[in-house]
Amino acid sequence: MDHHVLLAFVLTLLAGLSTGIGSAIAFLCRRTNRKFLSVSLGFSAGVMIYVSLVELFFQAREALTAQLGLRLGSWLTVAGFFGGMLIIAVIDKLIPSAENPHEVRRMEEAEEGRQTGGLMRVGLLTALAIAIHNFPEGLATFVSALQSPSVAIPIVVAIAIHNIPEGIAVSVPIYQATGSRRKAFCCSFLSGLAEPLGALLGWLVLRPFMNDTVLGILFAGVAGIMVFISFDELLPAAREYGEHHLSLYGLIAGMAVMAVSLLLFL
Questions:
Q1: In the prediction, which pLDDT does 114 show?
Q2: What is the pTM assigned to this prediction?
Q3: φ/ψ (deg, to 5) at 117
């Protein structure tokens, strides 16, 4: 396996398994640090929005116009961008809102009385929903990592932060239902494996067809996926966890860090 592909896979694995960090935090901390989560989620959104609109979109356009000409390449870039949004939107729509993995949960809930049945179902369905969500996210992380380290590492950090509340969302109801930290942690941890699995399956399917045109379409689609995730999941969750201005400050900080990291690799 090419060392660039191996590095991209390892980075995607690390990003996906951060759901386990969220689960661990839920059991080690008695109270939710709402301000920290608000800033962190805003930061993740800033990283993903900036890299999508400033780097990946224009990389896609550059690759596609070089292969197909200015007019057709530009149209295909825009189609790929909104196509990525459509894919993640359809996936989101197919998941019932009650089991949506981005429903805000607090660590305090883990100790608020244990129940069975319904909560176990919610936890397991949330784990399944996260696994489904993480397939395109894994491919997005993987493709970004293939491009260059300057793009990959901040995105991996952003996806990892984004996955921490998902780990809490899985572990809290399962712990309430079973009283077992081990079961809750394992379900949360395993749901994150869908991210590297999505990356691996996507790569295996696309590898025989991989060329500059396909790569350009992938970059455009990944940009759309990350922008949708930021506006549909990260920013609303950031505002739920904390104050409006905290999520905005995190957003601006994420954009600034992404901008500087890209400049350092010029």
A1: 46
A2: 0.71
A3: 70, -95
Q: Which two tokens stand for residue 80?
A: 């790929």
* Token reading at 248: 């905005």
As a whole number of Å, the CA-based R_g of the chain is: 18
Mean pLDDT along residues 199-208: 80
* pLDDT per position as a tens digit, 155-166: 777 777 767 776
Using N-to-C axis directions, what is the helix angle for 149-178 and 3-16, rounded to 10°? 30
Q: Could you give phi then psi for residue 242, rounded to 5 degrees?
A: -150, -160
> What is the full DSSP assignment across the chain?
--HHHHHHHHHHHHHHTTHHHHHHHHHH-SS--HHHHHHHHHHHHHHHHHIIIIIIHHHHHHHHHHHH-HHHHHHHHHHHHHHHHHHHHHHHHHS-GGG-TTS---GGGGGS----THHHHHHHHHHHHHHHHHHHHHHHHHHHHHH-HHHHHHHHHHHHHHHHHHHHHHHHHHHHHH--HHHHHHHHHHHHTHHHHHHHHHHHHHGGG-SHHHHHHHHHHHHHHHHHHIIIIIHHHHHHHS-HHHHHHHHHHHHHHHHHHHHHT-
Q: Tokens 């993640």 map to which residue?
A: 88
Cα 209 vs. chain centroid, distance in angstroms? Answer: 25
Question: What is the C-alpha to C-alpha distance for residues 229 and 227, in angstroms, rounded to an integer?
Answer: 6
Residues 8, 178: Cα–Cα separation, whole Å: 36
Q: Residue 90's closest CA among 194, 185, 225?
A: 225
Distance CA(262)–CA(103), nearest Å, equals 33
Q: How far apart are CA 197 and CA 221, in angstroms?
A: 18
